[in-house]
Specification:
Blueprint (H helix, E strand, L loop, with lengths): L6 E5 L3 H13 L3 E5 L2 H11 L3 E4 L8 H10 L8 E5 L9 E2 L2 E2 L18 E4 L4 H36 L2
Parallel strand pairs: 1-2, 1-3, 3-4, 4-7
Antiparallel strand pairs: 5-6
Helix pairs in contact: 1-4, 2-3
Length: 165
């Protein structure tokens, strides 16, 4: 979709949740692709090149945390913000589940806050407006990072031209 505010890959084994997230993001102008589990996410991510990925925790074939591990190991996808949207998250316990704290960060430390692996966590049921707001924020932050990286290169361009034979 030309002029879309961003591209989002929605990964959830529930068709109802995929559709709910898709409709709310598309109403805000986002281009959306869906995947039913982590394995399908990994098959589609390089072709679609999303700005943000929303991800369920409990899925068949490859679960959310396994998907996070694979995305963070790949230099082409490690920069993509990951928004965990899961019923397995207890909103009263910031990083935990019923069987103890989980490592959301990819740091290997149980109970570590989001940052290295998962960028944000939303508990199901969630407010669609909150999800859309987080996706907008991640897309805007991603565009700012690209501008910051490109600007220094543009400033170097005239100097490189003078050195060329």
């Amino acid at each position: 979709m030309p002029g879309a505010p961003g591209r989002v890959l929605v990964v959830d084994d529930s068709q109802v949740i995929r559709q709910l997230i898709r409709v709310n993001l598309e109403l805000d102008g986002f281009e959306v692709m869906t995947a039913c589990d982590g394995a399908e996410c990994l098959e589609r991510v390089h072709r679609f090149r999303p700005d943000v990925i929303t991800l369920d925790l409990a899925m068949p074939r490859l679960d959310g945390l396994g998907t996070v591990d694979q995305l963070r190991l790949d230099r082409r996808t490690r920069h993509i913000p990951l928004l965990l949207v899961s019923a397995s998250v207890d909103p009263r316990r910031p990083w935990g589940a019923d069987d103890g704290p989980l490592d959301w960060s990819g740091s290997g430390e149980a109970g570590a806050p989001p940052g290295g692996g998962i960028d944000a966590v939303l508990s199901k049921p969630f407010e669609p407006a909150e999800l859309v707001g987080l996706v907008k924020r991640f897309c805007a932050e991603g565009r700012r990072r690209v501008v910051q990286l490109v600007k220094p290169l543009a400033e170097c361009a005239p100097a490189s031209r003078t050195l060329a034979p």
